[in-house]
Amino acid sequence: MQIKIIGKILRQWKKTSMSPGVISRSISMGMVVGFSPTVGLQALICFLITFICNRLWRQDTFDWIIALIGSLVVNPLTLVPTYTFYYWVGCHAIRCSNVMEVQDFKNIRYFLYALKEGTAAIFLGSVPFMIIGLALGYYIGKIIERLLETRIQRRKERMLKKKLSNKSSKTAYK
């Protein structure tokens, strides 16, 4: 799975010329959005943050496709346990009157809509993971950027060797 994600980032990177740091910033922002309890809105949030930041600061602050890839860290298979854990962490930060467990997708609707303090607990409980996602995403992005830079450097070296060997073989025949 890790190689598929890097492949998607590589394709996006080849399509556009990105300045240094765009991949790490984009993955970092995407992971913050991914760890937030905004299921269904993550693509829109990534797009809006990218659009606003690229307009306000500079053109290459974020890439929204790479940010969206970073936001996919919390997928539907881990949604229920993740929200339960967010709720548990949030209830330790604020006092919750009745602590519930989320066991399946049917129960999560009741969980989110019936409890006003439960929603606050989930948002509050997700903040530490969003902060961790920020640092982790930036670190992963830097690793991917280094891999891509190394790949470019090796390709340039191969092309130079090939060019030199073609020149030497042409001069040998003369």
UniProtKB/TrEMBL annotation:
<dbReference type="InterPro" id="IPR018639">
    <property type="entry name" value="DUF2062"/>
</dbReference>
<keyword id="KW-1133">Transmembrane helix</keyword>
<feature type="transmembrane region" description="Helical">
    <location>
        <begin position="27"/>
        <end position="52"/>
    </location>
</feature>
<protein>
    <recommendedName>
        <fullName>DUF2062 domain-containing protein</fullName>
    </recommendedName>
</protein>
<keyword id="KW-0812">Transmembrane</keyword>
<feature type="transmembrane region" description="Helical">
    <location>
        <begin position="120"/>
        <end position="141"/>
    </location>
</feature>
<feature type="transmembrane region" description="Helical">
    <location>
        <begin position="64"/>
        <end position="89"/>
    </location>
</feature>
<keyword id="KW-0472">Membrane</keyword>
<dbReference type="Pfam" id="PF09835">
    <property type="entry name" value="DUF2062"/>
</dbReference>
<feature type="domain" description="DUF2062">
    <location>
        <begin position="4"/>
        <end position="150"/>
    </location>
</feature>
